[in-house]
Amino acid sequence: MAQGIQLVSPHELPDRLRQVFPYQLFNSAQSKCFAALYQSTDNMVVSAPTGCGKTAMLELAICKLVKDHKSGEFKIVYQAPTKSLCSERMRDWEKKFSHLNLACAELTGDTSYQEMNSVRNASIIITTPEKWDSITRKWKDHQKLIQMVKLFLIDEVHILKDMRGATLEAVVSRMKGCNPDIRFVALSATVPNSEDIAMWLGKNGSEPQLPAHRQTFGEEFRPVKLQKHVHGFDGQSNDFIFERILDGKIASLIHKYTQKKPIMVFCLTRKSCEGTAAILAEWWNRQRVVDRAWPAPTERIRVDRKDLQDMVASGVSFHHAGLDSQDRLAVESAYLKGNISVICCTSTLAVGVNLPCHLVVLKGTVGYQGGGGRPTEYSDLEVMQMLGRAGRPQFDDSAVAIIMTRKDKVVKYEKMMSGQDVLESTLHLNLIEHLNSEVGLGTIKDLYTAERWLAGTFLSVRMRMNPDYYNLDGVQPGGDTDQQLRLVCERDLKLLQDFQLVSPDQTFSCTEYGNAMSRYMVSFETMKLLLSLPKFSKTEEILQLICQGSELQDLRLKANEKKVLAEINKSPFIKFPIKGSITTTPQKISLIIQAQLGGVDFPDIKNASNIKKQFATEKCVVFERVQRLVRCVADCHAYDRDAISTRHALGLARSIAAEYWESSNLQLRQITSIGPQTNRKLDSKGISSVEKFASLDTAAIERLMGRNPPYGRKMLDIVVGFPLLTITAEVQGILKLSSGQNPKVKLKVCLGYSNNKIPVWNKKRPSLTLMAETSDGTLVYYWRGNISKLEKGLDIRFIVELCGPGDEVTFQIACDEIVGTVQSCKVKPDVPESAFPSPKSVQRSPKSAEATGATHQKEADEFGGEDFSEKELIEAVKDADATTDYGSDTFVDLDEIKIAPSSTESKKPPTAETLDSYQMANGRWSCNHACQGGNLRKNGQVCKHKCCAEGLDKPRKLKKRVFIVQSTRKLCRSQPLPSCKKSHGCLVKREDIDDTETINLADSHLPVPYSNLAPRKYRKLHNLHTKVQEDKNVRVSQQKPRFEYASGKKADLTFMKDSHLDDDDDPFGTIEDDLPPLDSLIGKQHRAANGLKPCEDGLPIGNNATSMENESASIDAAMMELDDNMITSLRKSPMPQLDESFENRLFDFEAFDDGSHKKDTNDEGFSSPLLQHTLARSQSPQQVSRRRRSVTNPPLPMKRPRSPSPIAASEVKCRRLTKEEREVKAEAIQEEPIKLEVATTQEAEKPPYPSWVSEMDQEFIESLSGIVTFVD
Fold first, then answer.
1. Cβ distance 400 to 359 under 8 Å?
2. What range(s) does the Helicase C-terminal domain occupy (predicted)?
3. CA 625 → CA 440, 628, 659, distances in Å?
4. High-pLDDT (> 90) share of the chain, %
5. What is the pLDDT of residues 1008-1052, one digit of tens each?
6. pLDDT (0 to 100) of residue 1231
7. d(C-alpha 1246, C-alpha 1266), whole Å
8. Structure pTM?
9. Which candidate in 272, 380, 785, 1211 could, as Cys together with 984 as Cys, close a disulfide (CB 3.0–4.6 Å)?
10. What residues are paired with 735 via a beta bridge?
11. What count of other Cβ atoms lies within 10 Å of the Cβ of residue 943?
12. How far is 672 from 719, CA to CA, in rounded Å?
């Protein structure tokens, strides 16, 4: 019996559970809670002072769960506010519950696959509220894990009133919604409103409206009585000056309350610790031996730091994170032995090391929170932890705690120390972030479920009890609490919808931006900033933006840091230097990041050592927070299909994770044993990457680094786990789509690695990210997964829509946290230009049509095209050519080409009357125009269509009207990257296309020529041309012609006239106003296209007797096929310099026959396209008939070799051979048959050499054979 409570023995437990409690009896507090903890499954809240044995109460709840679930299919979650408490509980329970096969796992760092595997295998999960919040925000990925949780233990639940309490409140409320069968056991320090916590948790899952079981214990249950004193001092100045005031008061307070027992003094900063220790050591040395507050050391303490050596001789030391590890261990060991009696430390020692004492002094109540640069008031949890160091149960029965603070804070800390400080909720301060998370989890689906979720929080309980404490923006104080909660929900959900974080539908769901905000735990204000990042942002823009996040603003820029930062900014290794002076916190954060990534040495400035240590501490905080923000940027822009911003964000995230730039030679520093000097030495030898380093053998490594064996083998064992990724891609097929759609190609990418086994780097298997982008910066594929999925190779197939024939798809894969692993490849699909739809038509604005209406009326052409501008007609012709079915004989008339309506007009095509075709009196067929048969056109004018007056050769098929629809491809936030439901990846969704066909590109290796895909008329004409003469590239002179056909003037072709023609003879007729006969402009090549085969003398011979008669009928059709460049070239005068191609066109060498011509000028065999018809008109019928009779069936003799160039042509003597020379040449040719090779090459016979050639070297002459023609 103790304090009126019957004590309980652990022997009431089963034998296997009894070993957890190594003592004979439970204490009074534990005995009073035994029945509620071990004999019931209801929720429970225990409020008791420090030292009451609350940890054993949690262990009793664990034993109850083990007894009820003998199968072991359960999980237990223990949640503590600090990592140090989690580590302490991990070490303790790992030993206590090992005989029960209850494995423990600590989950406090960043989530990794190894940690998640350990969590899955563990029965007891020890974690912090922030870490469990990140796990439960993705509870759908870990649904089985969360459903197995049967017991949830909450230590130090009184942190609800701190800023971190909102996370704890949200996590517990979420767990209540995910699994109603969970049992909650919460432990708290002495608080006056523990019943509110019991009401919040509820009795159990079936009766949540009833409060949980509650037990409250006062200070009388504390085993070591604690005397608490709060001393207030005047101080209106800043914290540093106020600390100087406390330095003069602390010695007298210690002398007053000490009993020559161990003392611990908590100070504001590291420098304050050192200064306070020096003051106390000096004060102790001045005192007489009998008056000293603590005894002298009994033995010498060995430390390396010089200033610490003088202090430990007086029994005083300081302790903080900046102290060397050996000195720190020496100080802790001497303190436990009693050789050191006073330790001046920072608040981190209160939770990091278990060093109990008799007297605790808080020299000030402010400190640096979370590594920030701005001193703030200690939280209640930190104060209670520091005061909890007072009392040594094995040595003392009492202890003393002193708080030194300002006078206006005295009442606050007196209530805290007496347990009268009421717990209040802080969820309303960041409610919008937690609402977004619950929407993403599906807990909140509409306004009603949002109100119901908020009603189950601790905030709802306290607002009903103390509504005046909560001043909510946009909500009027007073009134009904439920109405206030409803207004809060509406306000925050409206803000989430305004910034596209939550869908605007009545049924709420998170957008990809909202999911990214929840996944990376980004504050609402920072998320608004990240969403303002423009498209196609580079690394510098991303870095500048994330440095402005609200998560980083507590790192204050100090005045003494500006000089150091200015020197760092001057370093050439700073990739993006700050312009101007450094005056803001974001600039400081940017330089801290770049200094680490660029390997910048700290400036050698006097008294800058403390700043260097401070930067090292802040760097850890900055890199942890910035990493989350950069990954959020990458996911948001991947959803926007912005490949450029995504690629740069991933590169920056990879660099921050590895702490070195991706493209620098510092990636060797990722190997732990390689420092700055070794890195520079390897870089000078050309070893600038880990991959190159891994390719070396052991001897080369030892030689380069100047080390002895087995150093090389150890280094290779480290780098063998460096991932060597591989990637290949190929096009598997082209999807045939309906007209008007961009073609799509099916791609296949193969991922793998060249390592012998699954790479493991930094004791974990790295994660990967794959992205694919097109040439215009559009992200078409995004995937994320673990490298273990590549063990047997991973093939990914997806479909990509192309925008143009030159589009390329670039693939890039890299590890998320390792630099130097980027691998990429490119694929260029071979899609012909004809597979793409026509460009968008020119939209005519009403203003331009109204302004140019009069001009159109005056300049109406004979085809009645006055309703369209010239540009519109050109665009309509192009679109008609692209949309016409060339497999049929019908054509699309320009009147039936409709310009696509604007977005404001109706998209329904207008209906128009079409007439059936009938046979006319002349035997031809009528067209389908409404104006045929002498009717007026729509504008009231007389019809001038030739088809309406003369008819068509055959009836016209009725076709649907062609509407040119503008097809654009826009990239905006409203068109996200398609994704599929796969873990760790975002795959493009494969759509079922009914009208598509997959083409196997393996069957067609060569590109399809344009002549096979061209319109039908082009193919027919091309076939005729290729039968007559091979296609040859002709380069037409681009000089301005002396005569233009369109000018209407008389043709000036004097260079073509022969000597027998008079100056007055006009080969084209005598009427100047008429156009010249088209016959004179049609050459041999064009006559072949109309069914005429060329003759050796240049005159056409028809295929039948009526070919000449029908020649004029096809002249107009042939003229339409001539483009402007061809017509212009036909009218040009001879230029001073002509190239070989033009000479060959002007003089038809192939038709030139040496042995069948006479000396007459008209018999020269000239076949110039411009003179064929002119020569024919100048000859008499007898000459023409004689020339026709001279045509022989045997093959024509070979022509002489062509001149290679205009310059060489001027050096060759050209003349007509005499009759005797021709006979000699013909006899030489008949002696050796002519050998012709079809479709490849043609070898000319070796001509006879003149007599003067025999005087020269024969070997030299033979070498010139076939190149030079020798004549007399």
1. yes
2. 249-439
3. 22, 6, 14
4. 31
5. 676 677 787 788 888 887 777 655 555 555 566 665 555 566 655
6. 54
7. 7
8. 0.64
9. 785
10. 744, 998
11. 18
12. 10
